[in-house]
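Following up on my earlier thread - several people asked me to post the actual chain instead of describing it. Fair enough. Here it is, all 414 residues.
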Amino acid sequence: MCLLTFVLSVSIGCSGNRDLVILDDLDKEITTITFFGYKYEPENVTVIEEILSEFMAENPDIRISYESIKGNGYHDALRKRMASGKGNDVFLANHDVLLELEQQGKVADLSGLSAIGNYTAQMRSQMEEGKIYWVPTTVSVFGLYCNLDLLKEHGREVPGNLGEWEAVCDYFVGEGITPIIANNDTSLKTLAIGRGFYSIYQENRQAEVFRQLNSGEMELSSYLRSGFSLGEAFIHKGYIDGEKALGTEKTSEDLQEFIKGESPFMLTGAWAAGRVKAMEPDFEFEVAPLPALEDGTLLVINPDTKLCVNAHSPHLEAAMKFVEYFTKEENIQKFADQQSSFSPLQGGNPSSVKEVRPLISDYAGGRTVIGTDTLLRLPIWNLTAEASEKLLAGEPLDMVMERLDQQAEEDRLR
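Reply from S.P.:
Thanks for posting it. Predicted structure:
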């Protein structure tokens, strides 16, 4: 676990010493607010620091301390801080944790932010009607990383549908190569969510279906079985090494494996494309839409890096002022671009990272599934992560789906 903290009067992070900021008026009363997030990579911290520095230059009476914890331990730490009454003023949270914090009355209403009207209709549909407890600063995308040089060397192309993908994978298995690098979290679950829910988004039935899933009228497995069945088949056919994937951390160890250049594909978040590029692999790559359908491709997307304000913050006004500043169009664009993600605002430009440009067509064409839809009041991200781990560990699909439904029912009863 990496704990990173910097206060922008004296900034110290995992990447080393930063600049000293001199305060001109020491007699002025200073309000210090704290910002807790899971963005810890040096490039991400640099962008956050830029936004914080610019905000403080405009608001010399407010100082901001940013702190980050690496990996899955972040949301556990966030829960503990909020439960203890010592939560940060501003923080990032995901869909599952927000379900808990909203019910506990621990997140402030952000509906008064001027930026709300600037979000796309799709993003606004994800915010609660009436009260708004979070605002996204990016739209993250999950895709298929493709080693273009390796594919070309073997006379293969980037697959455009499921049949083509399986044919390419069969070829590489025949060559003694495991074609798909997977991690123990997002790889299988995004494949399952995308394939399982795609048709309901295309038919605009998600509100109806999620109402049935929320009430228990329908079981999660009735929609996700097809996607997890595909994942199980990929493991059995040798497209994915389940045992290896079970010990592979997302957007870290999987990236290290991919840049070796030995496998044609990797399943993970497109936001890591800039990081992969910075690792200077000796091959060209791109992130393509998921070829998970018989007739084409899709994208799994998430309203992401969700900014929230602690409802019990002693510095509520200053925290709101900072979130108002962070969500200005130029800051959202800068932040999203750095993370190889899409802007959640109307008229926002896609990331300038060329490796993710193949994603634009499906995104613009609406061939998308929201991985953590607000209308689904179940902790879908955690439920599907555990199901993925069980499949990778070799548990039969029927047992995994039965447990998935049991856990969903337990969450409904809480």
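Residues 1-24 have pLDDT under 50 and may be disordered. That should answer part of your original question.
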